[in-house]
Amino acid sequence: MNLKKTLKSIKLHETTISMILGAFVIVLIGVLLINYFAGRSGETVPAIDIEEEITLPASHSVSEGEDLWKISEKYYGTGYNWVDIQSENNIEDPNQISVGQELVIPDVSPRITEKEAILTPEPIAEEIKPEPIAVKTDSQEKIHTVQRGENLWKIAELYFNSGYNWVDIAEKNNLRNPGVIEPDQKLSIPEVSAKILTVAADKKEEAEAISGATYTVQKGDNLWEIAVRAYGDGYKWVEISEENELSNPGLIHSGNILSLPR
């Protein structure tokens, strides 16, 4: 009987009870929110990383592992402006820049824009089966079909007897990354003179033979001279390059330790 009265009383006051419970829930949520934000009051909001706009001319301090090509890519979006940085700073040997060296980055236009750097192979009038030397020609220019294992240095040697002409092939074909070429890719071979590396005769005579399995690069060294001193054959620079997985054989830095395959 008492239970029946109790239920009847609850039903009569149902609205009041609902309001009380609703108010309690609101107060509870408010307390939880206050405690949450109070706990975060001491936190530091991380700063938004805004990319710094590069203005030229600029000053650049050389970091570990950088070369003129990489520095040029940072400021111009293309490595080909390394020649402008070299000229602006009167650098005699572009292979020799040191960590901490201050360079002036000149205000010049990028030599290759991003749009121009997209390689679009030109159509070939007639498909010719690959020949042993992998050379294709038409009435106007030489076309080379990349073979597996080739790089621009090797291709430059094939056509110019000088690997240093790799930069001419890269510019002719607007290659954004000269270190990456694919088998069967078609490359136009420019009509330019061979780039010849000149070395003073007295330096050749005084250079000591290299007999060890490693060699520490000295100022003014290049792979050809190292191969001559290590093997008596400059053309073995290719083996040194492959052994050390050099992406750009034309750029080595003093202090680098090279493995010499024996």
UniProtKB/TrEMBL annotation:
Boundaries of every LysM domain copy: 58-105, 142-189, 213-260
Entry superkingdom: Bacteria
Keyword check for Transmembrane helix: yes
Keywords: Membrane, Transmembrane, Transmembrane helix
A UniProt-annotated Pfam family: LysM
Keyword Membrane: yes
Protein name per its UniProtKB record: LysM domain-containing protein
